[in-house]
Specification:
Layout lengths: L5 E3 L1 H6 L6 H16 L3 E2 L2 H14 L5 H11 L9 H14 L3 H12 L4 E3 L8 E2 L2 E4 L6 H5 L2
Parallel strand pairs: 1-2, 1-3, 3-5
Antiparallel strand pairs: 4-5
Helix pairs in contact: 3-4, 5-6
C-alpha cells in the first residue's frame, strides 16, 4: 500500500478540543495521534489561522496564550503558505465543484503538498477531488486508510 499523506481540515483539529462531544473528540484524537506517529499529517497556514480564529471565537480557553500554544503545537504538521499554484488549483476545483472558496484553497494546498487524502467531515466521504480522496474521520478507522 502506498504511503498516504493526509491533509487535515481545521474541523478535525477543533474536535480534539471540543469538550461537548467526547465521541468525536476521541475519534479525532485517535486519527491525529496515528497521523502524527507516522508523520503523514499535513496542514498549512490557512488551517492554523482558521484554528486560532475559531478557538478565539468559541472561548474554550482562558487566555490567548492557551490558543497560541495549541496552534503552535499543530504547526509541527506544517505551516506552508497558500501559493499561487495552490490558488490556481483551487480555481479549477471551484469551477468543477462549486465548493466554498476557503475549502477550495485547502484542497488546492493539499494537492500541492502531494497529499492523497483530505481528512474532513465537511465534504462527501469518498469523493475524488483533484487526485485527493475525501475521508470523513468519523466514518473510518485510521487503519482502513493508513494500513495496520
Amino acid at each position: 500500500m502506498p504511503v498516504a499523506e493526509v491533509f487535515v481540515d481545521t474541523n478535525v483539529l477543533l474536535y480534539v478540543h471540543d469538550a461537548r462531544n467526547a465521541e468525536k473528540r476521541d475519534i479525532a484524537a485517535r486519527w491525529l495521534h496515528r497521523l502524527a506517529r507516522d508523520q503523514r499529517a499535513r496542514v498549512n497556514l490557512q488551517v492554523l489561522n482558521e484554528l486560532a480564529s475559531v478557538l478565539e471565537r468559541k472561548r474554550w480557553f482562558d487566555t490567548h496564550e492557551d490558543v497560541f500554544r495549541i496552534v503552535d503545537h499543530f504547526a509541527a504538521l506544517g505551516s506552508s503558505p497558500v501559493t499561487l499554484k495552490a490558488v490556481e488549483t483551487a480555481r479549477t476545483i471551484k469551477r468543477a465543484n462549486g465548493f466554498s472558496w476557503w475549502d477550495c484553497l485547502l484542497l488546492g494546498s493539499a494537492v500541492e503538498l502531494g497529499c492523497s487524502h483530505f481528512l474532513s467531515e465537511d465534504l462527501q466521504d469518498g469523493q475524488q477531488i483533484g487526485g485527493l480522496t475525501v475521508v470523513n474521520p468519523f466514518l473510518h478507522d485510521p487503519a482502513e486508510i493508513l494500513g495496520p
